[in-house]
Amino acid sequence: NAGVMQNPRHLVRRRGQEARLRCSPMKGHSHVYWYRQLPEEGLKFMVYLQKENIIDESGMPKERFSAEFPKEGPSILRIQQVVRGDSAAYFCASSPTGTGSGEKLFFGSGTQLSVL
Amino acid sequence: GQQLNQSPQSMFIQEGEDVSMNCTSSSIFNTWLWYKQDPGEGPVLLIALYKAGELTSNGRLTAQFGITRKDSFLNISASIPSDVGIYFCAGDRNYGGSQGNLIFGKGTKLSVKP
Q1: Residue A24: pLDDT band with limits 50, 70, 90
Q2: Residue B29 burial class via C-beta count within 10 angstroms: exposed 0-12, middle 13-18, buried 19 and up
Q3: Which among A56, A107, A112 is the nearest to B99, CB-wise?
Q4: 3-state SS assignment for residue A49
Q5: Which of A17, A37, A69, B78 could make an SS bond with A49 (beta carbons 3.0 to 4.6 A apart)?
Q6: Strands B71-76 and B61-65, how do they pair?
Q7: What is the DSSP letter of B29?
Q8: Are B44 and A58 inside 8 Å of each other by CB?
Q9: Nearest alpha-carbon partner for A43 in B85, B101, B48
Q10: pLDDT at B90 over 90
């Protein structure tokens, strides 16, 4: 009964490199959400995707950040040319198909990105 | 953007004590959620509230959705050591069908009294 799987758990990148964060939703879930958490802060919404579609990217920075959720395979959050300010914990959540309120979100354990 | 003000920021508990924390907003939310986050893990849902005035319990936890829809509180009764962690409130502006765009407070960190 696997939950939301994120990998890697920890990712270290130098400034200017690319970071790729992966998220496999729970079985049967076709909605994926990415959140970012800075130290001592709450989570902040970034993007909401369904299979092959971006539904809401209102929380995504305009540059360097992109997300996808292909028909096959995990959802990917990609950060190009990382800067120190990108250091944070990135959480993925998934929810089952159909409507529902926030209680249907199940969070993964996160990827801690450190930019040197 | 919208913010949730969560207080207190941190508190120390002694086993057996009752704990109370709250969350306020300048905007109305249609759903209030309370999560607990352990170090190195994602948030885990504790309680979800859907109606103004609603009072809901989950074991030793009790939460209420404020009448004005702009606030919520969480109480933990007879705390135990495993209650330590960070508690987050979150508001969902959508009604019925969620876009998953939750607004989180900054958290209340519960620690054990030395």
Answers
A1: very high
A2: buried
A3: A56
A4: strand
A5: A69
A6: antiparallel
A7: -
A8: no
A9: B101
A10: yes
